[in-house]
Amino acid sequence: MKANLKSLLDVLGRSDTQYVIPVFQRVYSWTKRQCEQLWADMFEASEAKSMHFMGMLISKPDSRVGAVGRAEIIDGQQRLTTTTLMLIALRDMLCAEGSEQCAMKANEIDKTYLQAPEWRCKLVLSEQDQPVLERLVLGSELPRDADASSFLLGNLEFFRNKMAETGSFLSEVLPALESLAVIAVELEPGDAPQQVFESLNAKGKPLSTTDLIRNTLLVRFGSSGQEKNFETYWTPLDEAFSQFGREQDIYLDAALHQWITTRGGVVQVPKRTDLYQVFKRYIESKKDTALEDMLKSISDSCLEFARDSQSPEAKRHLDWAIDRPTGLISQRRIFGD
Fold first, then answer.
1. Angle at which helices 275-285 and 248-261 pack, to 10 degrees?
2. Torsion of CA 210, 211, 217, 223, to 10 degrees
3. CB-based contacts of 101, cutoff 8 Å, min separation 6
4. CA gap 250, 234 in Å, rounded
5. On the CB side of 258, how many CA atoms lie within 13 Å of its CA?
6. Which residues of 196-208 are buried (b: 16+ CB within 10 A; e: fewer)?
7. Distances from the Cα of 75 to the Cα of 22, 201, 238, 298, angstroms
8. Cα–Cα distance for residue pair 324/251, rounded to 1 Å
9. Burial of 136 (0-12, 13-18, 19+ CB in 10 A)
10. H-run or E-run covering 183
């Protein structure tokens, strides 16, 4: 593992690297409030001629196409994406200025931070967000379902408005962006990205048990394998369990509990908070089992649970998920009709 304090623009501007968000990570979700805070912090740092430290940016080399390597972002998606949105806004504002100097700087931003040789985008987001980000980078018409990426579009508009208020793009906005700094951590072949991911999850907004289980399964594949298996085995689960609304995680945890406790009748999970660690130990004990076969088994079992969630067996696992003593209150009272 190599770690160095670096300018975020230096990291993003590496000509030999494209950054990819693993398919199992959450979509971009920074709000306007977080963007406002970042905007204020970076201008304060710039005026003080110091750096604004944004935290860690952890990446793992994945593959190469020609002279350009792909690196998976283990932690730092929100900061990297938000900075990319600011760079898109700055490039567009400079293009609109019309002067030769601004046009040259806009082209430099485009080629250095937004696009990568061999690919059209330096940053690759989730399947939901990437079509929108790609169109924003290329300056082309947005896809019809662009509203699904409301955080991307809303935050880009916020930064455009702030830059229009500032006006001094080259003398104020660009130096403020240059003040952003991160601890850039590059994992090496022997490092375990899932352990890093779990450690980071102990800080900030925690991931759900389902998030952790999904990630510990899919992180074992390369990026192309992650995409294929996510689409084949996990996307159907997200779609099937969306019917349960706010209780989606509860129902999916119950379905996963049903799957793992039927593995030969020897796996016990005392409480819902134990599910991930028990699941992880089980996976590690089955190294001779094909991982894709396990994913298929989990997917098939959970889909069956979703189709018959009112069965006595399903309700037994739902009782476990909500830690309800049998017979005290009805399932309907907790989850509604």
1. 40
2. 150
3. 170
4. 16
5. 26
6. bbbebeeeeeebe
7. 10, 10, 23, 27
8. 14
9. buried
10. strand 180-186
Phi-psi region of 328 (alpha: psi -120 to 50; beta: other; left: phi over 0): alpha
- Which alpha helices (DSSP H) does the chain contain, by range? 8-12, 32-47, 77-97, 100-109, 130-138, 150-166, 174-178, 193-201, 209-218, 223-229, 235-241, 248-261, 275-285, 291-307, 312-321, 331-335
Which residue type occupies 9? Answer: L
The b-or-e profile of 44-56 (16+ CB within 10 A means b, else e) is ebbeeeebbebeb
Show the tokens assigned to 38. 């970042």
The tokens for 62 are 């994945």
CA 327 to chain centre: 40
Altogether, the residues listed in the chain come to a count of 337
Per-residue pLDDT of the chain (337 residues; tens, 9 = 90+): 677 788 999 999 988 889 998 876 778 889 999 999 999 999 998 998 888 888 888 888 876 666 678 888 988 899 999 999 999 999 999 999 888 999 999 999 999 999 987 667 999 998 889 999 999 999 888 888 888 788 999 999 999 999 999 888 888 999 999 999 988 888 876 666 556 555 555 444 455 777 778 777 776 776 667 778 888 888 888 889 989 888 888 999 999 999 998 886 667 888 888 888 888 888 878 877 788 898 999 999 999 999 999 999 999 999 998 876 544 433 443 344 3
